[in-house]
Amino acid sequence: MKKVLSIAGSDCSGGAGIQADLKTIAAHKMYGMSAITALTAQNTMGVYGVQEATSEFVSLQLDCIMQDIFPDSVKIGMVSSAAIIVEIAEKLKQYNPKNIIVDPVMISTSGSRLLNDDAMDALITKLIPLATLITPNIPEAECLSGVSIKTKEDMQKAAEKIAEQYDGYILLKGGHLEHSADDLLYHQGEVSWFSGERINNPNTHGTGCTLSSAIACQLAAEHDMKTSILLAKQYLTDALKAQLDLGKGSGPLNHCYRN
Description:
Blueprint: E1 3-11, H1 17-27, E2 31-43, E3 46-52, H2 55-66, E4 73-76, H3 82-95, E5 100-102, H4 117-127, E6 133-134, H5 138-145, H6 152-163, E7 169-172, E8 183-187, E9 190-194, H7 207-220, H8 225-241
Parallel strand pairs: 1-2, 1-4, 4-5, 5-6, 6-7
Antiparallel strand pairs: 2-3, 7-8, 8-9
Helix pairs in contact: 1-7, 2-3, 3-4, 5-6, 7-8
Protein backbone atom coordinates (compact mmCIF):
# COMPACT_ATOMS: atom_id res chain seq x y z
CA MET A 1 0.00 0.00 0.00
CA LYS A 2 1.28 3.47 -0.89
CA LYS A 3 1.67 5.91 2.01
CA VAL A 4 0.92 9.64 1.87
CA LEU A 5 1.74 12.18 4.59
CA SER A 6 -0.18 15.41 5.12
CA ILE A 7 1.55 18.17 7.06
CA ALA A 8 -1.21 20.68 7.69
CA GLY A 9 -3.72 22.23 10.07
CA SER A 10 -6.82 20.54 11.43
CA ASP A 11 -10.32 21.63 10.37
CA CYS A 12 -12.76 20.67 13.14
CA SER A 13 -15.68 20.81 10.67
CA GLY A 14 -14.01 18.17 8.50
CA GLY A 15 -14.07 19.90 5.13
CA ALA A 16 -10.50 21.16 4.71
CA GLY A 17 -7.05 20.66 6.19
CA ILE A 18 -5.87 17.27 7.32
CA GLN A 19 -9.44 15.95 7.43
CA ALA A 20 -9.91 16.65 3.72
CA ASP A 21 -6.44 15.27 3.03
CA LEU A 22 -7.01 12.00 4.87
CA LYS A 23 -10.42 11.50 3.23
CA THR A 24 -8.86 12.09 -0.19
CA ILE A 25 -6.00 9.67 0.53
CA ALA A 26 -8.42 7.01 1.76
CA ALA A 27 -10.59 7.49 -1.35
CA HIS A 28 -7.47 6.69 -3.41
CA LYS A 29 -7.05 3.49 -1.35
CA MET A 30 -3.77 4.67 0.13
CA TYR A 31 -2.53 4.93 3.71
CA GLY A 32 -2.80 8.44 5.10
CA MET A 33 -0.71 9.97 7.88
CA SER A 34 -0.74 13.46 9.38
CA ALA A 35 1.57 15.85 11.18
CA ILE A 36 -0.68 18.55 12.63
CA THR A 37 0.70 22.09 12.54
CA ALA A 38 -2.29 23.85 14.08
CA LEU A 39 -5.80 23.37 15.41
CA THR A 40 -8.41 25.62 13.87
CA ALA A 41 -11.89 26.44 15.08
CA GLN A 42 -13.73 26.77 11.79
CA ASN A 43 -16.78 25.72 9.86
CA THR A 44 -18.35 26.42 6.48
CA MET A 45 -18.84 30.09 7.41
CA GLY A 46 -15.34 31.04 8.51
CA VAL A 47 -12.29 30.60 10.70
CA TYR A 48 -12.87 31.64 14.32
CA GLY A 49 -9.62 30.66 15.99
CA VAL A 50 -6.17 29.13 15.39
CA GLN A 51 -4.06 27.35 17.99
CA GLU A 52 -0.59 26.57 16.65
CA ALA A 53 1.41 23.51 17.59
CA THR A 54 4.93 24.19 18.78
CA SER A 55 7.70 23.71 16.24
CA GLU A 56 9.23 21.10 18.56
CA PHE A 57 6.03 19.05 18.56
CA VAL A 58 5.71 19.23 14.78
CA SER A 59 9.31 18.03 14.58
CA LEU A 60 8.56 15.11 16.92
CA GLN A 61 5.55 14.08 14.82
CA LEU A 62 7.71 14.06 11.69
CA ASP A 63 10.42 11.98 13.37
CA CYS A 64 7.81 9.42 14.45
CA ILE A 65 6.40 9.15 10.94
CA MET A 66 9.64 9.16 8.97
CA GLN A 67 11.40 6.63 11.22
CA ASP A 68 8.57 4.11 11.08
CA ILE A 69 6.19 4.40 8.08
CA PHE A 70 8.13 6.30 5.42
CA PRO A 71 5.82 8.18 3.01
CA ASP A 72 5.78 7.85 -0.77
CA SER A 73 4.47 11.42 -1.06
CA VAL A 74 4.28 14.43 1.24
CA LYS A 75 1.62 17.13 0.98
CA ILE A 76 2.18 20.34 2.96
CA GLY A 77 -0.72 22.69 3.62
CA MET A 78 -1.27 25.24 6.39
CA VAL A 79 2.01 26.17 8.10
CA SER A 80 1.36 29.47 9.81
CA SER A 81 4.62 30.35 11.57
CA ALA A 82 8.24 30.75 10.53
CA ALA A 83 9.47 28.44 13.32
CA ILE A 84 7.26 25.57 12.10
CA ILE A 85 8.27 26.12 8.48
CA VAL A 86 11.98 26.06 9.35
CA GLU A 87 11.52 22.84 11.35
CA ILE A 88 9.61 21.13 8.52
CA ALA A 89 12.29 22.17 6.02
CA GLU A 90 15.03 20.73 8.24
CA LYS A 91 13.19 17.42 8.58
CA LEU A 92 12.58 17.18 4.84
CA LYS A 93 16.30 17.70 4.23
CA GLN A 94 17.15 15.15 6.92
CA TYR A 95 14.87 12.37 5.64
CA ASN A 96 14.74 13.35 1.94
CA PRO A 97 11.30 12.03 0.92
CA LYS A 98 10.33 12.37 -2.74
CA ASN A 99 7.15 13.87 -4.21
CA ILE A 100 6.83 16.94 -1.97
CA ILE A 101 3.74 19.01 -2.81
CA VAL A 102 3.45 22.43 -1.17
CA ASP A 103 0.02 24.05 -1.20
CA PRO A 104 0.94 27.58 -0.03
CA VAL A 105 -2.16 28.13 2.10
CA MET A 106 -2.31 31.84 2.86
CA ILE A 107 -6.03 32.67 2.71
CA SER A 108 -8.99 30.38 3.46
CA THR A 109 -11.94 29.94 1.08
CA SER A 110 -13.93 32.22 3.39
CA GLY A 111 -11.27 34.94 3.10
CA SER A 112 -9.52 34.51 6.46
CA ARG A 113 -5.77 35.01 6.48
CA LEU A 114 -3.97 31.86 7.66
CA LEU A 115 -0.29 32.82 7.32
CA ASN A 116 1.54 35.02 9.80
CA ASP A 117 3.64 37.90 8.43
CA ASP A 118 6.88 36.34 9.67
CA ALA A 119 6.08 33.09 7.89
CA MET A 120 5.92 34.45 4.34
CA ASP A 121 9.68 34.85 3.93
CA ALA A 122 10.35 31.43 5.49
CA LEU A 123 7.82 29.82 3.17
CA ILE A 124 9.44 31.34 0.09
CA THR A 125 13.09 30.83 1.08
CA LYS A 126 13.04 27.63 3.17
CA LEU A 127 10.10 25.43 2.18
CA ILE A 128 9.12 26.14 -1.41
CA PRO A 129 12.66 25.42 -2.74
CA LEU A 130 12.33 21.83 -1.43
CA ALA A 131 9.03 21.21 -3.23
CA THR A 132 8.52 19.02 -6.27
CA LEU A 133 5.35 20.98 -7.02
CA ILE A 134 3.64 24.06 -5.59
CA THR A 135 -0.09 24.67 -6.11
CA PRO A 136 -0.97 28.34 -5.51
CA ASN A 137 -4.37 29.74 -6.38
CA ILE A 138 -4.58 33.19 -7.95
CA PRO A 139 -4.52 35.26 -4.71
CA GLU A 140 -1.59 33.17 -3.45
CA ALA A 141 0.25 33.47 -6.78
CA GLU A 142 -0.24 37.24 -6.61
CA CYS A 143 1.40 37.22 -3.17
CA LEU A 144 4.30 35.05 -4.37
CA SER A 145 4.92 36.92 -7.63
CA GLY A 146 3.80 40.49 -7.04
CA VAL A 147 1.86 40.25 -10.32
CA SER A 148 -1.83 41.25 -10.47
CA ILE A 149 -3.69 38.38 -12.17
CA LYS A 150 -6.83 39.05 -14.21
CA THR A 151 -6.22 36.94 -17.33
CA LYS A 152 -4.55 33.72 -18.44
CA GLU A 153 -1.68 35.83 -19.79
CA ASP A 154 -1.25 37.28 -16.31
CA MET A 155 -1.14 33.74 -14.91
CA GLN A 156 1.82 32.92 -17.16
CA LYS A 157 3.61 36.15 -16.18
CA ALA A 158 3.14 35.29 -12.50
CA ALA A 159 4.42 31.74 -13.01
CA GLU A 160 7.50 33.07 -14.81
CA LYS A 161 8.14 35.47 -11.93
CA ILE A 162 7.80 32.71 -9.31
CA ALA A 163 10.12 30.51 -11.38
CA GLU A 164 12.90 33.08 -10.98
CA GLN A 165 13.19 31.88 -7.37
CA TYR A 166 12.07 28.24 -7.73
CA ASP A 167 13.11 25.40 -10.06
CA GLY A 168 10.25 22.94 -9.48
CA TYR A 169 6.79 22.56 -11.00
CA ILE A 170 4.24 25.36 -10.52
CA LEU A 171 0.53 24.58 -10.85
CA LEU A 172 -1.23 27.93 -10.85
CA LYS A 173 -4.93 27.28 -10.29
CA GLY A 174 -7.30 29.43 -12.32
CA GLY A 175 -10.52 28.88 -10.40
CA HIS A 176 -10.66 32.54 -9.30
CA LEU A 177 -10.70 33.83 -12.90
CA GLU A 178 -14.01 35.31 -14.02
CA HIS A 179 -14.32 33.62 -17.42
CA SER A 180 -12.16 30.51 -17.08
CA ALA A 181 -11.25 27.74 -14.64
CA ASP A 182 -8.13 26.62 -16.51
CA ASP A 183 -4.97 25.72 -14.59
CA LEU A 184 -1.41 26.49 -15.73
CA LEU A 185 1.48 24.08 -15.20
CA TYR A 186 4.85 25.80 -15.58
CA HIS A 187 8.23 24.08 -15.38
CA GLN A 188 11.56 25.37 -16.62
CA GLY A 189 9.98 27.43 -19.39
CA GLU A 190 7.47 24.78 -20.50
CA VAL A 191 3.81 25.83 -20.29
CA SER A 192 0.92 23.35 -20.16
CA TRP A 193 -2.74 24.28 -19.76
CA PHE A 194 -5.34 22.07 -18.12
CA SER A 195 -8.88 23.01 -19.08
CA GLY A 196 -11.20 23.25 -16.11
CA GLU A 197 -14.90 22.51 -16.09
CA ARG A 198 -16.62 25.13 -13.92
CA ILE A 199 -19.09 23.24 -11.76
CA ASN A 200 -22.25 25.02 -10.60
CA ASN A 201 -21.69 24.27 -6.94
CA PRO A 202 -21.19 26.98 -4.27
CA ASN A 203 -19.79 24.40 -1.83
CA THR A 204 -16.04 24.63 -2.38
CA HIS A 205 -14.68 24.37 1.18
CA GLY A 206 -11.39 22.48 1.02
CA THR A 207 -10.99 22.27 -2.75
CA GLY A 208 -7.33 23.34 -2.65
CA CYS A 209 -6.47 20.84 0.08
CA THR A 210 -8.27 18.10 -1.81
CA LEU A 211 -6.56 18.78 -5.15
CA SER A 212 -3.05 18.89 -3.71
CA SER A 213 -3.66 15.67 -1.75
CA ALA A 214 -5.05 13.95 -4.84
CA ILE A 215 -1.94 14.96 -6.80
CA ALA A 216 0.22 13.59 -3.97
CA CYS A 217 -1.65 10.29 -4.26
CA GLN A 218 -1.16 10.09 -8.01
CA LEU A 219 2.56 10.86 -7.70
CA ALA A 220 2.80 8.18 -5.01
CA ALA A 221 1.25 5.80 -7.55
CA GLU A 222 4.24 6.67 -9.78
CA HIS A 223 2.35 8.58 -12.46
CA ASP A 224 4.20 11.43 -14.16
CA MET A 225 3.36 15.01 -13.21
CA LYS A 226 0.93 15.83 -16.03
CA THR A 227 -0.95 12.55 -15.64
CA SER A 228 -1.09 13.05 -11.87
CA ILE A 229 -2.62 16.50 -12.30
CA LEU A 230 -5.17 15.30 -14.87
CA LEU A 231 -6.32 12.43 -12.65
CA ALA A 232 -6.43 14.64 -9.55
CA LYS A 233 -8.46 17.32 -11.34
CA GLN A 234 -10.94 14.68 -12.48
CA TYR A 235 -11.32 13.43 -8.90
CA LEU A 236 -11.95 16.98 -7.67
CA THR A 237 -14.44 17.67 -10.48
CA ASP A 238 -16.41 14.52 -9.69
CA ALA A 239 -16.37 15.29 -5.95
CA LEU A 240 -17.89 18.71 -6.75
CA LYS A 241 -20.42 17.19 -9.16
CA ALA A 242 -21.69 14.95 -6.34
CA GLN A 243 -23.37 18.15 -5.01
CA LEU A 244 -23.00 17.47 -1.30
CA ASP A 245 -24.76 20.26 0.58
CA LEU A 246 -23.80 20.56 4.26
CA GLY A 247 -23.54 23.60 6.51
CA LYS A 248 -24.78 27.17 6.26
CA GLY A 249 -21.86 28.58 4.26
CA SER A 250 -19.45 27.24 1.63
CA GLY A 251 -19.80 23.54 2.38
CA PRO A 252 -17.43 20.60 1.93
CA LEU A 253 -16.99 18.20 -0.98
CA ASN A 254 -18.10 14.58 -1.13
CA HIS A 255 -14.66 12.97 -0.95
CA CYS A 256 -16.20 9.49 -0.91
CA TYR A 257 -18.44 9.87 -3.97
CA ARG A 258 -16.89 6.72 -5.49
CA ASN A 259 -18.12 4.47 -2.66
